UniProtKB/TrEMBL annotation:
An example Gene Ontology biological process: protein deubiquitination
UniProt enzyme class: hydrolase
Official protein name in the record: ubiquitinyl hydrolase 1
Organism: Aphis glycines (Soybean aphid)
Record InterPro entries: Papain-like_cys_pep_sf, Peptidase_C19_UCH, Ub_carboxyl-term_hydrolase, USP, USP_CS
Pfam families: UCH (PF00443)
Reactions the enzyme catalyzes: Thiol-dependent hydrolysis of ester, thioester, amide, peptide and isopeptide bonds formed by the C-terminal Gly of ubiquitin (a 76-residue protein attached to proteins as an intracellular targeting signal)
Location of the USP domain: 37-355
Entry-linked CDD domains: Peptidase_C19R
EC number of this enzyme: 3.4.19.12
MF terms (GO), sorted A to Z: cysteine-type deubiquitinase activity
């Protein structure tokens, strides 16, 4: 728990309080759009279109950017609030009624100003784009809580580290998408341990090396099993040693993004069919923190990849909760799909929302 001085009042921007506002809850209906507009391919920008459609299906994020984001813009950020502004324009266009597709050239131009890899029209990795975009949006909307006092938080469970990190990192992006994991590196010779706590915006899970079928649980267990590393400088041995690195998930966000690591360092792609739950992902067996709550999630978006890394194509499969139907977003083409087709070897990034 965090304790606060009686001489200072805690100023907290609460996502839950803002998004429970009745006006905001009904804002999508009042705009009249259905969120089913396609995005024109500007030239190998399907990776970008796929991620934008998945984020446009993230209801709490859409409510925020449709109405109130401008109250929290940090103009001292690296991108001076420009990425948040252009992202808001994309969301508003995707939920407007004017036509079935539109061109988000201004958004692409704005991200190209700050990252050369997005300046041109080469194919990029959708997970890398998502990670950078969330980082930029967080920076554009960050409102540090300078007057928060952190007392009595546990060091062992990561609560203290989380408290200090969220004191300096307070945005809608952090509150919706960020969790925390613990990294423990142990020397194989003297068993000295080094423990660090790290925030994450997505979990990048390895796929089993053998077999064409596996489950998401298999991937999660493999992620948490630990791995051998070479050349770790042991502080006790005072020399490079073989070591074991173990990860533990300590805290999960309301919106959980899971990246399936289909591509190896040499560009080889694993086309394994990963079975994952669409309506009832239970993460309680994979979290090691002390925080007790409902760890069940529902799927609402998938970034799909077809083909090779260089010559492939990205699409999105998204649930529109207001009508409880799944749609495929293939650039400008948008059409309803059978939910049973979502779990396939094309699934690359999974977007989950915590139940209730």
């Amino acid at each position: 728990m965090y304790s606060h001085s009686k001489y200072s009042k805690l100023k907290i921007f609460s996502t839950a309080m803002v998004l429970r506002d009745p006006y905001l809850i009904n804002i999508l209906d009042s705009r009249g759009g259905d969120g089913l507009r396609g995005l024109q391919n500007l030239g190998n920008t399907c990776y970008m279109n796929s991620i934008l459609q998945c984020l446009s299906s993230t209801e709490d994020l859409v409510k925020y950017f449709m109405n109130i984001y401008s109250q929290f813009v940090n103009y001292k950020s690296r991108t001076k609030g420009l990425v948040a502004k252009e992202f808001s324009n994309v969301i508003k266009n995707l939920w407007s009624q004017s036509g079935r597709s539109f061109q988000c050239q201004q958004f692409k131009d704005s991200i190209g100003e700050y990252k050369d890899m997005f300046k041109h029209y080469d194919q990029q990795d959708s997970h890398e784009f998502l990670t950078i975009l969330l980082d930029w949006l967080h920076d554009d909307l960050n409102q540090p809580e300078d007057n928060r006092v952190i007392l009595g938080a546990s060091k062992e469970t990561g609560e203290e580290d989380w408290g200090h990190w969220t004191k300096a990192n307070n945005s809608i992006i952090q509150q919706l998408f960020y969790g925390q994991q613990k990294s423990t590196v142990s020397c194989d010779t003297c068993f000295e341990k080094s423990v660090t706590f790290e925030p994450f915006s997505s979990l990048s899970l390895p796929l089993p090396s053998e077999g064409n079928k596996c489950t998401l649980s298999d991937c999660l267990q493999l992620y948490l099993n630990g791995e051998s590393i070479c050349g770790w400088h042991c502080p006790r041995c005072k020399r490079s040693r073989d070591a074991t690195k173990k990860l533990d998930i300590m805290r999960l966000p309301p919106y959980l993004i899971i990246h399936l690591k289909r591509f190896s360092s040499n560009g080889y792609k694993k086309n394994s069919n990963v079975e994952f739950s669409r309506t009832d992902l239970d993460m309680s067996n994979f979290i090691n923190g002390l925080e007790h709550r409902n760890w069940k999630y529902c799927l609402y978006g998938v970034s799909n990849h077809i083909g090779s890394l260089d010559g492939g194509h990205y699409t999105a499969s998204c649930l529109k909760k207001s009508i409880n139907k799944w749609y495929k977003f293939d650039d400008v083409r948008v059409y309803e799909i059978d939910p049973s087709t979502i779990c396939s070897s094309e699934a690359y990034i999974l977007f989950y929302c915590r139940k209730n």
